[in-house]
Write a structure and sequence with these properties.
Layout lengths: L1 H14 L6 H25 L4 H14 L4 H14 L4 H14 L3 H23 L5 H85 L6 H30 L23 H10 L4 E6 L7 H21 L5 E7 L3 E8 L20 H12 L3 E6 L5 E8 L24 H5 L6 H33 L1 E3 H6 L6 H7 L5 H4 L14 E8 L7 E12 L2 E9 L3
Parallel strand pairs: 1-2, 6-7
Antiparallel strand pairs: 2-3, 3-5, 4-5, 7-8, 8-9
Helix pairs in contact: 2-3, 3-4, 4-5, 4-6, 5-7, 6-7, 7-8, 7-10, 7-13, 9-10, 10-11
């Protein structure tokens, strides 16, 4: 029972897709009753005697049109071919099918099947009283006007609504992304400030600490002077610790990579390779032995590479001052054929009494090398840092001259550079989308051409049929009873039952066992001057004309 109930619930939800608020329920019920009554009234006018069955069928089809648009279109086309009562429902079914069936081939198949049933049922009903070609042509014209045109408009409305919803959703997404861009810009600025504070202030504080440490062990100073120098060194170390905490907070709140030098929002280049000499002089002034050498022919560097080389040397000197105070430092720049190699080495720190005690403990957060690797990666280079066999330390960087951007350089630098992943520019702006009006207008144009062609064909067929079903008075007088059927038919027009079917319901009694043909009798010599009420009848039996009569039809 549970399975049956679940299947029934699923079938109901499929046939009657929701939601179903009270207002919609009332509206659907009223419209279903209205469509059923309208179909019944049309059946009363047509005098078919099928008012109740067609009215109930139309009401049921109206309710199911949303859940089964293709099925409703096919069934409505079949019953409309038999009677004109469901014609308003056929218009609504075409609208619903065009708006709700998404797959083109399924939509096309539903309309073709509906038209076939519409024309077949119409031919079966009226085929005996009219030419099948004429019935098929009329049914095609009616189907195109009353079904295909509403379907095209319904599909246009549905696609336009879907396009507007997509554009509205895309606009909301762009607004959200713009907020994200602003947030990313703020985070990038925080990161830049943190990186500059770490590289510049950290370097200067390290030099102060080194100077203070050197003075603290100077035997020429008095105890009071040595105590003052110790306070100065403790203040420098405390300042480095506080700087480390501030930089850590800024780094924790920022996940963006440092911007590429030279890009909007990037830190200005400070010194570059030409400024390395100034860094070395500051270290020498602190009492550290620094050796500097260059190899190869000096070449111009991109701004980002120039700045990266300066920052790498600056950070390497800072680390050497902090971790190996008093140890000699060697800085080398090698201009290779395809890249600049920056190398900074220092041996193990000498044992200095009192150099690292108390407040003089080394302050390090590990952000320096991480920042250097990011700087090098942004310009397409790499950084290697590690201990040497002599228990010293070596830092080397390879930087390409032109500064090729890596994947990390795709960090956002402004709203104009924001690129949506998997979205082409045309799609982002709506330029790649074709308006639904174009396809629907093409469909309307094609339907209009077909309908105009059918009208022209219908007019020509009407004129030809009226001529084929008309006999002039002079020809009627020339035909004699007793002539062979072949001779008479050779002189008479081919006839058309569509125009003469009503003539067969009245007139004088036909000879028993005879086969008759009816024509409209034209009183003048012109084929166009014929009257539906003036009838000429020719009856044949045994291959011979046995009766010829003219009369006035009451139909």
């Amino acid at each position: 029972m549970e399975t049956i109930a679940r299947a029934w619930s699923k079938a109901v939800l499929t046939a009657l897709p929701g939601p179903w608020p009270r207002r919609r329920v009332v509206g659907e019920a009223v419209l279903a009753v209205f469509m059923g009554v309208l179909a019944g009234l049309l059946e009363v006018i047509s005098r078919t005697g099928l008012e109740v069955p067609f009215g109930l069928a139309v009401a049921g089809l109206w309710v199911l049109r949303r859940g089964f648009p293709g099925t409703v279109l096919v069934l409505t086309g079949a019953i409309t071919g038999w009677s004109l009562g469901p014609l308003p429902m056929l218009v609504c079914a075409g609208w619903a099918a065009g708006a709700r069936i998404r797959r083109v081939w399924r939509l096309l198949g539903s309309f073709v099947l509906s038209y076939l049933l519409f024309s077949v049922t119409g031919t079966l009903k009226d085929g005996a009283s009219g030419a099948p070609k004429l019935i098929i042509g009329l049914s095609l014209g009616m189907f195109l006007v009353f079904v295909v045109l509403p379907a095209l408009y319904g599909r246009y409305r549905a696609q336009r609504r879907a396009l507007l919803d997509a554009l509205r959703e895309r606009n909301d997404q762009l607004v959200r992304e713009r907020v994200m861009v602003v947030h990313q810009a703020r985070l990038r600025e925080r990161h830049r400030i943190a990186q500059d504070m770490h590289d510049s202030l950290g370097h200067q504080l390290a030099l102060i600490s080194v100077h203070s440490g050197a003075l603290e062990v100077d035997r020429t100073l008095s105890d009071r002077q040595r105590e003052a120098v110790g306070v100065l060194r403790q203040a420098a170390v405390a300042a480095m610790r506080e700087l480390r905490e501030v930089v850590g907070v800024l780094h924790d709140e920022s996940t963006a990579l440092p911007p590429v030098a030279g890009a909007p929002g990037a830190a200005p280049v400070r010194g570059g390779v030409d400024g390395i000499a100034g860094l070395l002089e500051s270290s020498r002034a602190a009492g550290t032995q620094v050796a500097y050498s260059t190899e190869g022919e000096q070449r111009p560097l991109a701004a980002a590479v120039d700045n990266a080389a300066y920052r790498i040397v600056q950070e390497a000197l800072t680390n050497a001052h902090k971790h190996a105070p008093g140890a000699p430092i060697a800085v080398a720049l090698r201009y290779e054929p395809d890249a600049l190699v920056v190398e900074v080495t220092n041996p193990r720190a000498p044992e200095l009494v009192g150099a690292h005690t108390g407040a003089g403990a080394v302050v390090s957060g590990g952000q320096g090398l991480t920042g250097l690797r990011e700087r090098a990666r942004l310009v397409g280079g790499m950084v290697h840092a590690g201990a040497t066999p002599e228990e010293g330390f070596r830092l080397a960087a390879v930087l390409p001259y032109e500064g090729v951007e890596s994947d990390g350089a795709a960090a956002l630098v402004g709203e104009e550079d924001w690129v949506f992943e998997g979205l082409s520019p045309d799609e982002g702006t709506g330029g790649g989308r074709r308006s639904p009006a174009i396809g629907c207008a093409a469909g309307v144009g094609a339907v209009t051409l077909v309908v105009v062609g059918l009208l022209i064909w219908g007019v020509m067929a009407f004129v030809r049929g009226s001529s084929d079903s008309t006999v002039r008075q002079s020809l009627y007088d020339q035909v004699r009873v007793g002539e062979s059927k072949a001779e008479v038919m050779r002189r008479l027009p081919p006839g058309n039952d569509f125009f003469t079917s009503d003539f067969q319901k009245d007139g004088p009694a036909r000879p028993e066992g005879s086969h008759c043909r009816w024509y409209a009798l034209a009183n003048g010599d012109s084929d166009d001057s014929w009257s539906d009420s003036h009838v000429a009848r020719f009856c044949f039996k045994g291959g011979v004309l046995v009766d010829k009569v003219e009369y006035i039809s009451k139909n």
